[in-house]
Amino acid sequence: MSFPDPAPVRDLIEAFRRSKTMFAAVSMGIFDRLHESPARAPDLAAAMDVNTDALERLLDGCAALGLLSKHDGVYANHPVAEAYLVSGSPDSLYGYIRYSNEALFPMWRNLEDAVKAGTHRWQQTFGLEGPAIFDHFFRTEKAMRDFLRGMHGNGLLTSGKVAAAFDLSRFRRMVDLGGATGHLVIAACERYPELRGVVFDLPRAAAQAREYVALSAASARIEVVAGDFFRDDLPPADLYAAGQVLHDWSEEKIERLVRKVFASLPDGGAFLVVEKLLNEDGVGPVGANMQSLNMLIVTEGKERSLSEYTRLLRRAGFASVEGVRTGAYNDAILAVKGARVG
After folding, report:
1. Is it the case that residue 242 has pLDDT exceeding 90?
2. pLDDT at residue 128, rounded to an integer
3. Known catalytic residue: 120?
4. One of 35, 152, 183, 247 is an active-site residue; which one?
5. Residue 310 pLDDT
6. 109-113 contact pairs (CB < 8 A, 24+)
């Protein structure tokens, strides 16, 4: 009797162990310490006041995962760890990894209950309602900076490809709704020299965005405006963008925001939506399915296929909707109001 290859099942049994190994090493500051100087396990354990044998097992696990090198007992960061796991790196995902460890990892334990109820798990996991949890995790300036830096790192991996997915040269003013650190506006303005950009986000995020914008070669053409896209008037633009925003909210709130964007645009203006696109049958890519489950656990929203976004955007009045798979972390959709120009 032959059996199916158990490798996919075995891999999934162990998948959370690999994630938690990296999460723990980041949380304990191991990659930051090794950034300062490669070290042996006993010396590192003494400096950290932890068990030497246990730390060596964690270090060896990170080496086996390709995050560290080990030569003659000396551990050092691999380039991938230097780029993405060291907290001070400009490309770091440190903040989002800490958030994944401290918030998402515990909440995913309650996936079964999320599926039964169809609602997020903030209350069940932490005893807090959804909005309050962000006040808890971002209770310090450093926590907020770390999270936004992680989101910025994610953005750097995808925003350049999103800005190149469509020819945006005909547009003159782009406003990124919920633009966080401004990575999408920065990428677009650096690619299109005639484009001016606005990062529009809540005051705490806007303060951080100004620091990132100042580092861009296109900073003179980018401004940061504090506001709430649900409550406040939108800054004028012929191109609005929303990156990983629509997937956070209920259908009713999304339709309200899309209608608001449509009403604010001139004819020929457009709405650039940046999200993971599901395949039309809802199966795959895997990252989009996992993100949709993450949205179930964390928010009111979900991921969608291009046809689902198309229906949503056309209901608001957009004349044409195109989607592009960027090959990066997120995909891109461009919805145009009225006749296409250019």
Report:
1. yes
2. 74
3. no
4. 247
5. 97
6. 110/297, 111/293, 111/296, 111/297
